[in-house]
Amino acid sequence: MKMVFRWFGSQDDPVPLEYIRQIPAMTGIAGTLPDIPVGEVWPVERIAALREEVNGAGLEFEVVESVGMHEDIKLGKPSRDEWIAKYQETIRRLGKYGVKVICYNFMPVFDWTRTELAKVLPDGSNTMAYDEAALAKIDPSRIVESMSEMSKGYYLPGWEPERLGRLDELFRAYRDVGEDDLAVNLGYFLKKIVPVCKESGIKMAIHPDDPPWSVFGLPRIMKSAADIERILGFVDEPENGLTLCTGCFGSNPANDIPAVIRRFGERIHFAHVRNIKISGQCTFHETSHYSCDGSLDVYAIMRTYHDIGYRGYVRPDHGRMIWGENGRPGYGLYDRALGVAYLNGIWEALERS
Length: 353
Ligand SMILES: [Mn+2]
Known about the structure:
alpha/beta
């Protein structure tokens, strides 16, 4: 496996590349250009500058998380072909600069959703949480305000204000789009981009819905093993692959993560490993990566990756805020670095046993 670390760029991420480089066995970053409007082609000079900066710090830039998906593609609007053409061009450009994997998601309107971004735990750390009962009390039109109030001023990936400013319009647009329609629109997108990925040496890796159930009645199509099977079937090629995020996928206890790794492992190009504590129906909070702190068996997950000979990218996912760190919710340095050390320790023990 190749360990990478999500990084939002020097303008936007309080964690410097130099610190990421100091985490043992770190090989590179999963990077993005957060200021490019969703759907627009990434400028060559910006991609080149990002790669140069990352390489200059002794790290690789082989993973992008994410290239945003214009809503018209998800909605299957006639204008989608123009947006897909732009996505194809971004893929070509990233391929030229050595990117191998693009992580993306296909969630309507909202990206990941939480009801608390700094829930205080008994040890004094704080973490992100989702509570179905709390969500039911939030009016959908207020969720953007609620997330932005909780964000401490940081850009939250997938919560771009320009897109979410049109919330009523987006909800209206999705009234007639069910899960099957959304899935068909994903299939259409994949059929158009996979040939470009092949030419560019890039593999797409779809991220599970977070959380893996419908939020505010919107359709969700990447929440179970059956959903994965349908998505991989749209284009049966390695370029149509997966990001398996244990924290998202595992917040539904019916999802058996080791079974999914064994079944779809060849198509997993990016592994997000983190833990969550499930405390009720559709209710969880994020914990340290350690198995003993959460509901997921992180050892069993890593052992399964080891069993299948996984050679793809891995990253620690959301961490808590610990040791007084003040940073982007989920993306502080300290707890994610502890997560890396733990995952590397499990991996070394597996390698040597
Ligand atoms: Mn993830």
